[in-house]
Specification:
It contains 14 helices and ten strands. It is an alpha+beta fold and about 400 residues long.
């Protein structure tokens, strides 16, 4: 008896779904879009943090020495504040401290670049003492510059430069070509560099099309040789050293600077972007809530559109248990199928969006679809399917066939 009623309820639910296939398809798509949106936005929230951690870990540095947060200074040449002074001297001092293996000053600036000295683009610039710590994917690194020697900028410049692929495409150049680079148009016209390689390192730091060149030469072409500035200094420790111990030692010796480990630097970066992260978290929560509501609305609306058929069966004496089972089956089927479609589309869409994001800002895998996030999306679809089925079955119990079929 129970088996026959269950088969009848399932058969009726399937008949309702196949009777109006367009409406059923739209309901499934509605659920799929809601689940997809909630899943992708949640993946963005987790991906940003994970990507940040991976970038710090892959940088190959243990400690970060800064003079405060990196700020833009649009009214100055170079466009970025440089809180560290006498960077070559400071880096040498840090390198001589026990358990410190290397110390390297980094300078971030914005520069003009042109392949012909007439049509200029604005890009980011990274200044480093040597190309040993820079990843080169094509060509070679620049030769060690002897431009800065004995505290003076009077040595010969290498006039060699590395571009990331986006910058090379932006100005339509390749390895072996020359470009004009400088913090002002006048300085750029006076400084021609030969492209010796392609490197993504600068854009990984700045997230924009970026060139990399010797530190002292970037200081020269941006008019910053007066104070030997740097944006920050990175340090690596010896293999057997405790990073925390070295950090405390450096902080005691240089109390005016902020000394941070990778984790602490990432945390400081996150705290400075607290408003945006809070907004992202709110957006993710809102996406889940809206996805939940839209899915519930789509399923209940689909059921309401079939309500006359349920009323007719109730008028003919069909038990409310059978009708409630049919309602739950109908909404559950659409919810689960829509959730499966949404989750199935999430991975290829995430891959496509990651490709676009990588091309635009240089960061890879910002949208990270972990099994936990996919499980969350599936659980959302399943839960909403059950809730909408319960809501539909309760509605069936309250149906007055005479009123409904007038």
């Amino acid at each position: 008896m129970i088996g026959s009623r269950l088969r009848a309820a399932i058969g009726f639910a399937i008949a309702q779904l196949t009777h109006d296939r367009t409406r059923t398809t739209l309901s499934i798509l509605g659920v799929a879009i809601a689940v997809l949106a909630a899943t992708l936005l949640t993946a963005v929230g987790g991906g940003v943090i994970q990507t940040g951690q991976e970038k710090f870990d892959s940088a190959g540095r243990d400690l970060w020495i800064t003079g405060g947060p990196v700020e833009f200074a649009p009214t100055t040449v170079g466009g970025v504040e440089t809180p560290i002074r006498d960077s070559h001297t400071l880096a040498n001092e840090v390198e001589n401290i026990n358990d410190v293996k290397t110390a390297a000053p980094l300078l971030f600036q914005t520069v003009y670049i042109s392949p012909n000295g007439s049509e200029y683009e604005t890009v980011g610039a990274l200044g480093v003492r040597g190309s040993a710590g820079v990843q080169v994917t094509s060509g070679r690194g620049f030769n060690r510059s002897r431009h800065f020697a004995g505290g003076e900028y009077n040595g010969p410049m290498t006039h060699e430069i590395l571009l990331d692929q986006r910058t090379a495409s932006l100005v339509n150049v390749s390895i072996g070509d020359t470009v004009y680079v400088g913090g002002t148009l006048a300085l750029a016209n006076a400084n021609e560099f030969t492209i010796v390689g392609i490197s993504p390192t600068g854009s990984q730091f700045l997230g924009t099309p970026t060139v990399s060149l010797p530190l002292s030469e970037l200081q020269e072409v941006t008019g910053k040789t007066g104070s030997d500035p740097a944006t920050l200094i990175t340090a690596t420790t010896t293999d057997d050293a405790s990073v925390g111990t070295v950090e405390r030692r450096l902080q005691q010796q240089y109390p005016t600077y902020d000394i941070r480990t990778n984790q602490e630097q990432l945390r400081a970066t996150i705290e400075r972007q607290a408003v945006f992260i809070a907004g992202g978290a709110s957006l993710t929560l809102l996406a889940v809530v809206i996805g939940f509501a839209l899915t519930l609305n789509a399923l209940v609306s689909m059921f309401i559109q079939h309500i006359e058929a349920y009323a007719a069966l109730k008028a003919l004496g069909t038990s409310t248990t059978t009708l409630a089972t049919a309602a739950i089956t109908q909404t559950f089927f659409v919810g689960v199928l829509g959730g499966a479609v949404g989750l199935g589309a999430a991975m290829p869409i995430a891959i496509g969006l990651n490709e676009v994001i990588t091309r635009i800002i240089g960061f890879e895998n910002v949208i990270m679809l972990s099994p936990r996030i996919l499980l969350l999306g599936g659980a959302t679809a399943l839960l909403v399917s059950l809730l909408s089925g319960v809501a539909a079955s309760l509605y069936v119990l309250r149906i007055d066939p005479l009123t409904m079929l007038k």
